[in-house]
Amino acid sequence: MSQHRLVNPLVRNIRALKRVALVRQSVRIEEEIKQGMKKPYNEVIDVSRDNPHATGMKPMSFVRQVIASCIYPELIDSDKMPLDVRKRAKTLLECIGGSVGCYSDTIGIPIMRDSVSDFLTRRDEGVPSASGKIFITHGSDHGFGLLLTMLVRGDRSPLVGVLTPVPSQDFGNATLVASGATAVPYYLDGQQGWRLHTEELQRALRSAREVCDPIALYVINPGDPTGHVQSRESMEEIIRFVYEEKLLLFANEDHQDILIGEGCMFISYKKVLAEMGSPFSDAVELASIHSASKGFMGEGGLHGGYLELVNFDPSVQIEFDRLISLLVLPIIGQLALEVMLNPLQPGEPSYEHYQEHIRETLVHNVTRAFEVLDSLPGISCEPINGGASMFPRLHLPHTAIHQAKEEEQLPDFFYCSRLLEQTGLCVCPGSDLGLPEGTYHIRYKAPPTLNTNVFIILLLLFITSPYLQSENRPVSECLNFLKLPYN
Amino acid sequence: MSQHRLVNPLVRNIRALKRVALVRQSVRIEEEIKQGMKKPYNEVIDVSRDNPHATGMKPMSFVRQVIASCIYPELIDSDKMPLDVRKRAKTLLECIGGSVGCYSDTIGIPIMRDSVSDFLTRRDEGVPSASGKIFITHGSDHGFGLLLTMLVRGDRSPLVGVLTPVPSQDFGNATLVASGATAVPYYLDGQQGWRLHTEELQRALRSAREVCDPIALYVINPGDPTGHVQSRESMEEIIRFVYEEKLLLFANEDHQDILIGEGCMFISYKKVLAEMGSPFSDAVELASIHSASKGFMGEGGLHGGYLELVNFDPSVQIEFDRLISLLVLPIIGQLALEVMLNPLQPGEPSYEHYQEHIRETLVHNVTRAFEVLDSLPGISCEPINGGASMFPRLHLPHTAIHQAKEEEQLPDFFYCSRLLEQTGLCVCPGSDLGLPEGTYHIRYKAPPTLNTNVFIILLLLFITSPYLQSENRPVSECLNFLKLPYN
């Protein structure tokens, strides 16, 4: 039959990301290396996405020991594993029916909802959390995907719109488009640490209303890839905005556990909402997500997350329950999530190593990477207060922009593709995150180890001379800073 | 805002499964047991779904050892694991970027497509398989879900229809409805081992064309829950049917590795199609799925599967590739799939145990369970040739049917709910699998160990006296067969 007539037009609307072309280029390069072709590097380092384990981040031993013991329970009875690991694995194994091969209930393994609810109540210093309003997911995207499946139908006219921050990654592009909604961009302020201005939200909403039916505002806090952490005042402004404009509030709080800036604190939207009191606390409909894929766990391959609904209409939640009844959830991701929500406490045998790992891995290295990056000629970077992504601006010279256009490429992609070819380093062009022409950025997930960081920054530096402006800062100055020779 | 106006009507169309009510009943019962309420049993045994690990099936040690070693790589260097385990884990770990915490590529970890393609070529004795036409998934439902997302759009009028076998589980209900398609039932012949008759397909197609735009025929072989295994002749008839009627063919071949009947063989639709030659082999568009969740692995909690497309229009496959570019796949399920596709070979240290496990677990116990079940008064069962589900018919007496109707319940659900309350055994009512009123069945996944089987059958027996007809076979005769006292 002619299938082509069948193809869902929404699928055709999915925008191809440039990153995909870079991944293909990486595969080709690695194939060439394998076949013995000489390159100035031995492997491709991919820092283009939030995938820390792929760039050398070590997983937390406790998490992995617990999961390995659940997978192969003979380990529980062996002396290979510390006592607290065996104890935790035994408890979890009982909750999942004795085997990780069991299907999970559609609402998650029995303890999960309570675990999330206890975690949220602790985190929000007593703001109550009901386990019936918590939904276990494959990860953050999945949570919003479910919400959008419930709220959006492809044939609605005008289209359903979701106000989405720029820069930000896949959500605006993929999950949204596939559901039949449309992303309405609002722009974060790249001159002021990627802050969100309410005036910009108002402008975006006005222009959205001309082309679609905007139903929700999507915020990411701490920002990804921007590293911005919202202040309480800014969050209150946003809550007032969605209240007045009768929008749902979708909060991606995936990076809540990585805080870099000194004195920087994470406050959840749920807490701010509760503390603002009536009429906001009873009226604003909030959906918030978190997962073990991002944040300090970085266990992207394991797939565990949750979604919490606040103030959702009970009749709508019945429909959501119905949709959830179709879910089949992977067990391993839930185990990772459980350990993330209930980390080791002081006094438990594995505690020391665990805490040290978090501290060392995250804060120190991200801070250091930012300092070095911002010192490079031709590159500038807004401060990183949370999360672990860098989003530096490239000051591309006119010659590079001109050459890119001659080759019919976006200038940022042109830079990324050249960088990958010449150094084996794969970063993501800012245009993939929705940034319009005019300024050029790259997304770069700071690898957790200092050595890898310094190495990557050196690679960025090598490409600097031909393609980036010097901004009066000679290369030698940066090398001096790095205390490494330039050869 | 009033969210209710937003709710996607497709979500409202999702039919609530009675099994969900039984699961809730189970939770309530277990809570009561925990609180010390006296019951004639200590726990609920749930055999209502294909979830063998939940009913005591032991996972294959090799699979779990490999995965545990990938999760916690310190095990690779230890003497805790056999040599072949450590070797396999090392190879796999290299393929996934060194950590199970890494995100997988959207087409799966690099070796996966080749692994599947090699497996298929071996299985189909040389029928070629291209890795570019293979898509790694979270499991079978996910594969069809993706296909339906590509092919179905909610607002198409008339609705897109998929001919779906009855009895069969979730697919007809959930994945399909959520995509906006409609399931058109065709009925398998419960008098003849649940065979599929082409005349019934023609009847179903004619009636479908009055209400929707039927685009595909969905078949399950080996049958689930029916245990029927299609003959080559029957498959050829079906291929001719879809060719003539210009339908896509969706083949769920999830249970291909569990063959029970003596001399029973599995042949894939792809192989039959290839061997039928032109015009069929070039024209019939086939999508086939398999997974590690069902079959002899039964690793439902781990989520690994694949989908193969045959003869799909290249321009349509481009759209499918675009859709796939949104995927984020769990790593652990892919590892389970890889071990399933490349099982141990004779001579490898862990081989003996592995083979023995498969043989003992599956064939012997399913055969035994069938024999006993079919001998019970008030229950009859068609032969099981493949898969591990039982789908016995209940000969409910009029008094039981009458009582069910008085309580406004479906008679099969009435039986299941009573059985659960009185014995702690949870089975699935046939009406959940689409069976219309008139005959009553239960789905019951045969647990893999003989002891559990005998125990469960005894439970079925206890409920027999009040609710099932005796059919002239006294209970004592069955007890004699079981060689167990009736107390």
UniProtKB/TrEMBL annotation, chains A, B:
Homodimer. GO terms for molecular function: L-alanine:2-oxoglutarate aminotransferase activity; pyridoxal phosphate binding. Its EC number is 2.6.1.2. Belongs to the class-I pyridoxal-phosphate-dependent aminotransferase family. Alanine aminotransferase subfamily. This is alanine transaminase. InterPro entries: ALAT1/2-like (IPR045088), Aminotransferase_I/II_large (IPR004839), PyrdxlP-dep_Trfase (IPR015424), PyrdxlP-dep_Trfase_major (IPR015421), PyrdxlP-dep_Trfase_small (IPR015422). Keywords: Aminotransferase, Pyridoxal phosphate, Transferase. Transmembrane segments: none annotated. Its cofactor is pyridoxal 5'-phosphate. GO terms for biological process: L-alanine catabolic process. It catalyses: L-alanine + 2-oxoglutarate = pyruvate + L-glutamate. Residues 82-437 form the Aminotransferase class I/classII large domain. SUPFAM superfamilies: PLP-dependent transferases. Pathway: Amino-acid degradation; L-alanine degradation via transaminase pathway; pyruvate from L-alanine: step 1/1. Pfam families: Aminotran_1_2.
